[in-house]
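Case study B.
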Amino acid sequence: MDFRPAPDVLELLALTERWLEPQRSIDALLEAQAQPAGYQVSAWNQCAELGLCSLLIDEAYGGTQMGLEAMCHLSEAFGRALLASPHFAHAVLASDLLNMSEAEALKAQHLGAWAMGETCATVASGGRSDWVDGTLSGTWDNVLHGDTADQIVLTAHDQSGQPLILLLNADAFERTVQHGFDQSRQRARLVLPRRPVDPSEVIASGEHAQRLVSLAQQRAQVVLAYEQLGVAQACLDASLEYAKTRRQFGTIIGTFQAIKHLIADLYTQLEAARSAAVFAAWCADHEPDQLPFASLTAAQLAGDAAFQCAGQNIQIHGGIGFTWEHPAHLYFKRAQSNQHLLGCSLDQLDQAARLLELEGGC
Amino acid sequence: MDLRFSDEEQALRAQVRAFLHEQLGGRFAALRGRGGPGDEEELFDERLEWERFLGSQGWNCLSWPARYGGRELPLMQEVIFFEEYARAQAPGRLGHIGEGLLGPTLIALGTEEQRQRFLPKIASAEELWCQGYSEPGAGSDLAGIRTRAERHGDEWVIHGQKVWTSLAHRSDWCFVLARSEKGSQRHQGLSYLLVPLDQPGVDIRPITQPTGEGDFNEVFFDGARTEARWVVGAPGDGWRIAMATLAFERGTSTLAQQLNFANEWQQIATAAKTLGALKHQQIRHRLVQSRMELLAMRWSTLRMLTGMLEGRLSPEAYTLKLYWASWHRRLGELAMDVLGPSGAVVGSNYDLSSLQRLFLFSRADTIYAGSNQIQRNLIAERALGLPKDPWRA
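Model:
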């Protein structure tokens, strides 16, 4: 049994850390968030050039097929740096779903360009599909980086209410920027004017679509859990640094048990979440039967750990932690927002209850 | 990353499973599921016979050197043995203090004479051991002990009192931390002595717990004696030896413990269904949360064990006791909330249901083997490098 990442993953991570270094400072973070796109376009281009968009795309379609575990480690690094980027929406949500589908024509048409970041995609879900005489319209809110995407993977419903996944050009929509409560993730409202749907635009439908969405969701939850671990770790590291240097009452504040015990609890929670996430990443690549519960566990525990670490990081920093100029609030907003990124977090516990056969009532 | 068990580990697992299935289905069938919490006083002679049988078949002290009765198996295989042991509902153990604490201490720090005298009889379960550390005035602060030992000729003479001594009433020997240098303070001047319990100078009295039962004792030493050669390490160096013993608790029973936790969780989930508590979303969510944390616990343990195999003492290992003890205490609370009003009644002689017993026992989990408060200090200081409390020596 060996928990260490493979050498090629470690190599990729080293490369990534070097690339992330200049983007970590509070100034760099705020500058990226102030861009019209909500991220630095030059950084996105570099990200693509480094091959970081290709991990979940099969080699047959131009990807590197490094697997979900590798993507998880990348995601953790991005989370620690609080990178503002369409990477998650593009390289994870959209790419993983299309790659796993059986839509051969669409895969051949798009995955190669997506792997190189030549075009950028995102996923729109949770909206309302409206059918009239075989034509579709609808509104989708909260679409990650929907304003700058080139393609939209649309999770809609057909006329009988069955799941329907489409791939449309972004210019088929009327798009309005929605600034994120999490300043590091811009969203958009997408309005689809009434139009017919061509079969060539369909990624999957019916039961196949349902399975695809479900599996893509589980895998995305694991990757996002790792991002949350990165957020949590960055906050814990900041808390530790502050506790070891800040002086009050004639001593270092890390001497006080109130501070020590708080940090000990955060560390304990983080490491437990890490263990769950590691197992979930393994399940994604090797144990599909165990993935449903494992992915929910990783999402729940990592989400809570990130939120606690980020929130208490503000607390430990005292007043200075509650200023715009300090990065603590940015991590806090990312941690909170991530808890509902893939759907309401409370649904996760209900889903898990069903998996454990804990149905309500006698 | 590869999270599979190795071929050797899987082979051992299969071997243990088959062996236990055969034995607990045959001659020792009456012991299945016995000797656990609330049942520790039962079938003692039969369980001792079982452990002696295990020893005769080479299933005790698996990681020990062969010349002392072991099989030099790697830690992970020992863990797997105990996991299968729990899965087979094999009876509660009696020799774990000798096997897990005293034995490794003697292997690392004892004299060859001590090893030859004591280790084979631990492996064969011929002799049982208990641990004499805590005193009424020295719990979390072990350095405050006052039990004293004086050299008289070729013997140590011991006066004092130990408390919370599990299995003392069933044990043959006790390893006792005592103050051997008059006037010494705290960690200085202590000695680690091996003391036989069957003598006039030793008086053992049971302590009753909130469950109405007790596996605990007070042990009074009033002129108790042991041979001079039964000091481990040099006289005065006892603190170092005592700390080494604590460090030898390597997590061999962690997966076994978690298997029992899973069984308890299932019992509570079933009760929730039967009693209608599942209609409350809060109960469903707490059950889910608990089950998720148990999954995390398993992989934390395996990460820790794998880290230790590679010689790295991982800092996250410090979090394990705090995590499982707190988890178990929450599980006990959930159990009682599931029972609701039906948990308000007990049998005659304060007979508790298993869930009521779980609720009460779990209040001790966050106290013994280093309280939650001590654990947080250890995590903060040793794993994370935060400063010690100002009053610590």
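Chain A touches chain B through 50 residues (CB under 8 Å). The remaining cases will be described in the next quarterly update.
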